[in-house]
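Researcher: Last one for today. Full complex below.
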Amino acid sequence: MSVVADTTRELTQALVQHRTDLLRYAKLQLRNDAWAEDVVSEVCIAALEKPQSFEGRSQIKTWLIGILKFKILDKFRQNAREVALPESDSESDSDALEGLLFKADGHFATPPSDWGSPEAGLNQKEFFIVLETCMEKLPAQLGRLFLMREWLELSSEEICKELALTSTNFYVQLHRARLRLRECLEINWFGKS
Amino acid sequence: MMQKQDHPLRLTDSLGLKFHLLICKACPKFEHQLQTMQRALSDWRNEIVK
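Model: Here's the assembly. Have a good evening.
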C-alpha cells in the first residue's frame, strides 16, 4: 500500500468525522448556510488534493480548521458587497439593549454579578456549547465581526476592510457584541446557581 | 474597559479608569466578567481544534 493511499484514507475518515464541526464553525462565522456548505466542500477538496501537505502534522483537525479559516476569508472576499451591507434594524435593537443595561449617566442599571470562572467545578464542554449558542444568537453582522476578531483573530484594520467599516463603527459594533454575549452568558450560565 | 481589551488606553483615560475602579463597586465585577469572557474565548479557540 502506498503512503499516499494510506494518508488519503486517513484523511477521508477524518473529513467524515469532523464534517459536522467544520460546518458548525463555518456557519457561525459566515452566517450563511449556503456559503458554509460551499466552504466545507472546498476544504474537503483542498485536503484530498494535497494529502502530502498534511504529513508530519500532529492533529488532522487542527490542519483542517486552518484550511477552513482560509476558505472562509476567500468566501467573504468573493461576496464582499453582500457582506458589507448594514442590517437595517440592528441600530434600534442595540439602542434598546443599551437602554435596558445602562442608566442615563452611563452606569449599570443592574449591577454585574460575581462570575467566578467557567471551569470551576463545571463541565467545560457544556460551557462551550452555551458559549457557541450565545454567539449564534448574535445578530448576523455583529456575529461575523465578533468571530472575525475572536476566532479568525483578524486585526481591526483587516476587519474594517472586509466589512467596509470605519474604525469607530468597528469598535462600537464589537462593544455591542460583547455586551450581548455577556448578557447571554449571565442568563444562561453564570447567573444560574 | 472594553477599549482596553483591544488596544492600550491613552494615559488620561487609563488613569481615569483606574481611579474609577477604586471607588466603584460594579465596574471591577464588570471588568472581571470581560476578562473571564476573553479567557473563555481563548480556551474555546484552542479546544475546538483538538
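Residues 2-47 of chain B form one domain. Chain B touches chain A at residues 2-3, 5-6, 25-26, 29-30, 32-34, 36-37, 39-41, 43-45, 47-50 (CB under 8 Å).
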